[in-house]
Amino acid sequence: MKVSPAAPLSVTLLLVLFLSTTTYAHNITKILAKHPEFSTFNHYLTVTHLAAEINRRQTITVCAIDNAAMNVLLEKHLPTYTLKNVLSLHVFADYFGAKKLHQITKGSTLTATMFQATGEAPGTSGYINITNMKGGKVGFANEDNDGHFAATFVKSVVEMPYNISVIQISHILTSAAAEAPVAAPSDLNVTTLMAKQGCKSFSDLLKSHPDVAKTFAENVQSGLTVFCPTDGVISAFMPKFKNLTKDGQASLLLYHGIPVYNSMGMLKSNNGLMNTLATEGKKKYDFTVQNDGDDVKLETKVVTATISGTLYDEEPLSVYKVDKVLLPRELFKGTVAEEPAPAPKGSKKKKKSSKKGGADDVEDDDAPGPSQDDDEDPAADSANLNWANNVKSSGLFVTVVISIICVAII
Predict the structure, then answer these.
(1) Compositional bias (Acidic residues) at which positions (predicted)?
(2) N or C terminus of the chain: which is more exposed, having fewer CB within 10 Å?
(3) What does the pLDDT average to over 133-144?
(4) Span 296-302, mean pLDDT?
């Protein structure tokens, strides 16, 4: 067998390519989701779109703040775009694990934050001073904060050297520059927008419930995604809507809004459970976003709706048409805690109507309630599916690489 002179070089290049494609990116949202004490911080990383920016960075340190410390910041009622600048001070463009924090050369260092990277931070206001203090403490202070250390290191949460480090600090890091007012987007009238784009019936329902319409309007500035059933779908559903209590009607309408901006690309890449404007305490009122080829489907465990078009998509607002009314199981199939009664032996399930646009297409009154499997986390199922797909793709890639190497050697 004669080996081609180019074979060693080809093999080396292919192996480098293979190793580069098996690198897994971090996901700050999933990391923090395992630590409920940071749920508020995690939520606002998503609302301000910092989460996506963090995930794009290859080397990063995130200083997480627990819920109590976040409440102190939220009491200032800062606009979303100003809040983003403040939270940006908590994201360093360098890797700092617990060991590195306690072994800083000369005991003190300056590190750039994502606030500095925006270009909106005047002078050195986008830098954080990290200093080893007496008693083994590590202090953090904004560079323009006159040497006052606003926070100290609490613990390491997650370390993935030298990709991402998530640490907890005791208090909010802020500065006058970060809290300076930021221009907000022009006001958007959600109901007027929907009425002009084939969703007038849904818009009219919102107007008939002023408190609901107000909730939608108040969420626009901080980020809002609306799923709007088209006029024909609402018309077919009206008899069932009228049978709901006033509170039930309000919850159903709120169920069609997510208090976070989502572009179509974000919906496709962030499959999993979504809380809605109707979510409150034990009342989950959530649904699952799941890709189906090029389509994006919304699964409520009562119905599965498909996004059929985009009415508006410009941050901080996106409005999508859907082909069915989203039915929360809290209203139409009982609560999650309830279990369906066992069906009598020999009984047969009724088939759903295949007519499109009819009332039976929205809900099957004879369908069984949620089973025990319904209480499993759809997000976990989605994660397992994504993992399986990654494994399958990696296996295919390995096969191709091996085949090319064999050809090169021959």
Answers:
(1) 360-379
(2) N
(3) 88
(4) 95
